[in-house]
């Protein structure tokens, strides 16, 4: 892949590959074992990137899955424009899925079967009964498209994969007449057999799954969900959608809102220019999207354009395009506004304003579109949700850690159904899986670093120890090592890092071979690998056969070099990134010229690669070298521009255990306004206060700390992101993350300010013990950075605190039972009040 997959994308791609392999085995054993697989991922999760990774693996293999030379894919949608966009996105994401492998089915298509290692893009209109592609054995064509589908299934069976993109749109409830999609999936008597393996892709897969459930013949169903919280953490999506609308009961102010949209776009432009100058990279050119009614009059369009051009100094006609369905230029009030296909807008940096009707709500993808003014009336919940969802992708495919207002998108929606928008806002905040996983803010407040907080506080906050916590580990640590080596070399931090990694891996394999030779297991492994055991059985065909004939005998034959090559291919998957080949090269170089045996060197490599203890030793050594490099070169990595620095984050997350990283204190942030406003926060509104709602224990903690005259500032720790103080704790199976609620900064002497962690900690929750232990372990490791680290709980209307800087308290936390946290507070806690 040309892109480095996000963690959740990597996990989903592996899960789908595994499901496809299992589906193929089941179908090969029994032609009635039909499978469906559904990828469920929120809008903006990168479903096309996941699909490209899966198809790359099918065609070319990787360190976990062997290539399938017979694999072929039929990609089905109901929209030709969506196919064009998907092909474009796959070409950008993949290193091997180029134009020769991505084929659009057009009117000239005429093949008996689909070719191997190709993806064929089909919009279902080509299978309508009136389309010539559905008729074969004519003067103009030999095979109908239905015949191509049928003969491909009959010829390659489990190696033919049918993908239904935007599956929710092609799976409507059927009446008496089956849909085209259902005929592809279920087959038609005498025309095409059922598809062996169907893969549906959707943000809302319920309709696909319901349709599959109606078809009793397809009983093997696998759901591959992408967790919404993982997409939130990825940086691919904006953090917030800011909704700006006139208050109820006011007269429409279309041109006023258009002017406001222009000013917001120019504000984004100024912010992006400042960020680009700071980082030394090209600036993002944000675009304004103006969505108009289906039939605007020339007079209305003239008003809209006048508002845009009068507010935007220097804007030219060539900077504005329309994406209307008429596909023609507009001539309005002496201006000529050209047509541009929606999928072309993103890459043309000169386009600054886009006029559209429905294009933005039906699959359009333009991350530069950061401001939307919609003058359409919209009543339907789904339409509104899809439209908002199209605006949430980040221009740089990463979160901006310093200026967090660049993680916002602004929408002006004066004619949308207010109740439906409110309902969507609620669902977005709840994290419903069929919605874009972003926060909607209807009453935004811009926060900046507070002038009332000493500058020392920001330095202290940024220096606090925080962690990257690994999730489910799928990728090989060897692959992780060589990714790290390539990054260090590319950034001129360790110029020979790749060579160092190869030398290190060869040294590990040499040591492992010596260990296995010492106990004889290497020699026995070579003997087993070089010899193929044969079992000969005897079948008595005549009654007078010899009575003493044995039932079977065993003997051995030497494997030929082709079989050794097969095992060496397995070794290259077990020892990826060229490690197996590099070790084999060393063995060949070390052989005398008159005793050269390439096959013997391959066999020796395979013996090591097939030994689980050797693989574990290689993985552990790779992990250790990465950890050493991260510690040694952390300062150099931190000095890199954001784009380069961010490239190291996946390497950190793929660790086997939590890794230290840096906390980035933002300079600005957009938050919703709240009734409660608090002083002395490190980020504040123009009046010096921080809007944040707190109840119960949290409010009591804030009241107490803010009453301390020595308090000079505080920080409400966010949940997730580079601006969060993140602590690891041990979950049931994996390390997990916790985020203490508050960090307070007190003046402890005339020349010293010290931070404190105060975490209101529910003792009644199921994870109370493991989180408390995580906080205690952090205190043991990093307590010297803090004045206090306290867990606080309310017991019988009193706030009690555990002093986790005390080794005695930490020992008691380590020994406490799951149901003993409350007792721990009452017997060993101090009176926080």
UniProtKB/TrEMBL annotation:
InterPro entries linked: Helicase/UvrB_N, Helicase_ATP-bd, Helicase_Restrict-Modif_Enz, P-loop_NTPase
Listed GO MF terms: helicase activity
Boundaries of every Helicase ATP-binding domain copy: 28-223
PROSITE patterns in alphabetical order: HELICASE_ATP_BIND_1
Keyword Transcription: no
Keyword terms of this UniProt record: ATP-binding, Helicase, Hydrolase, Nucleotide-binding
Protein name (Swiss-Prot/TrEMBL): DEAD/DEAH box helicase family protein
The keyword ATP-binding is annotated on this UniProt entry: yes
Annotated transmembrane regions: none
Top-rank lineage group of the source organism: Bacteria
